Each structure stands twice: as structure tokens, then as C-alpha cells.
Amino acid sequence: MELTWHGHSTWYVTVGDTSLLIDPFFDNPFTSLDPSDVETPDYVLLTHGHADHIAHAGEFEGATVVGTPELVGYVGDEMGVEETIGMNIGGTVELGDAYVSMVRADHTNGINTGYEFDAGVPGGYMISDAKPTQNSDEESTTFYHAGDTGLMTDMREIFGAYYEPDAAALPVGDHYTMGPWQGAVAADWLNVDHVFPMHYDTFPPIEIDIDDFEKEVKAAGSSAEVHVLDGDESFTLE
């Protein structure tokens, strides 16, 4: 599984022959790319409807956009997206070589700063190369994109215990989401081998000292390896 961070919460994930782009927002300081520079993915996954997560969702002609029914209805009507898949919390859909499960995130979900539309519930995604079951599968590889969220016990009781992610991308910018210490506790609860900070240093309210996150992960007693990626940098998850 290939993971590429394009800044903020934007990730390009390849599972086998299937490509997925999560929360496309290229107007951030970590990337030098425009949407047109990015290879069109098979699927675009949206965690929620805030502008810094859906800004470029309509710019990948031929891609299928996945999200809550309310949100994909919006991008279909307002952004001209022709192919969509609506799903919801707890559901798993098979997308090519990937199994994608939508999981809970604690956040808000209005669209645009005026909150003119309700986009349903916010979520995160578990992306795996095997169908999730309640039986442990040591051969599978799973990446957790948390979306925008606060710390919640589901990370310990459900996500870590049953989805068994190998790696997690966690928001750590504070103010709107978890900060470094809460993200560190999340990494511990998830019991992941690899953790990637995201959703920080994009705007003034979420500017942090990213070194604090690595310190907090150690303080939490997590054995996760912290990877602070540069924008547009890739990591191979095996």
C-alpha cells in the first residue's frame, strides 16, 4: 500500500491497482501541486463537507466520489460530479482492490462557512486490502484516515480492537481537532505501528510545533513510529 501526503488532510492511497484520493485540498502550504498535476484517482473519498476537505473534489473527471449520501449529493449537484457512491458510518464498500469502511469522527459537518447545507455526519476511513471481520487477520494491511476528529474511546474499543490498523493519519493541529497530546493518546489506543500527523500548520489557528507530537507519542507509551512527512512525500506500508 502506497501512501502519499499532499498536505493538510489530503492523501493519495494506492491499494493494488486501485487509487484513492482523500479530502482533496491543494491550496495548502505543504504542496506545490495543482489538482491537474495529480493522476486522476479511481475514487475520491470525502470525510466531511468543510471547504478545506472538499475544495477540489470536482476536478478529477472520471473519478467516483465517495462519502455520506448528503455530501455526495451536494458535490453531484454543485460540482458536477457524475459518479458517486453514498455510504455511512459502519458501512464497508469494496472499491476495486480496496475495502473502505467509514467510521465515526467527532466533528461538525456544515458545508461552506455559512453552513447553508447539512452534509450528514462526519467520518473517517479504514482502507484495507482485505475485507474486515471480527477475526484477527495478520496478513492484511490497513490504513486509518481519521478525518477531522477529537479523541474518542471508539479508537480504543472498536477501531484498534477490531479494524486493527497498521498505520494512522491523525489530525494534530489543535483548535478544530485533536492537538499533539490527544493525537498521541489516539495513536496509543489504536495500537498502530506507524502514525502520520496531518491537519496542522495550514492556517494560523492550527500552527503548532510538530516536534511536540513525537514527544507526546513517547509520553503516551505508544510504540508507534512517528513519520513527519514533507508535502508530496510517499511512504510504503507493508
Automatic annotation (TrEMBL):
Residues 7-199 form the Metallo-beta-lactamase domain. One of its GO terms (molecular function) is hydrolase activity. InterPro entries: Metallo-B-lactamas, RibonucZ/Hydroxyglut_hydro, UPF0173, UPF0173_UPF0282_UlaG_hydrolase. Pfam families: Lactamase_B_3. SMART domains: Lactamase_B. It comes from the Archaea. Keywords: Hydrolase. Belongs to the UPF0173 family. NCBIfam families: PRK00685.1. This is UPF0173 metal-dependent hydrolase ACFQJC_09895. It comes from Haloferax namakaokahaiae.
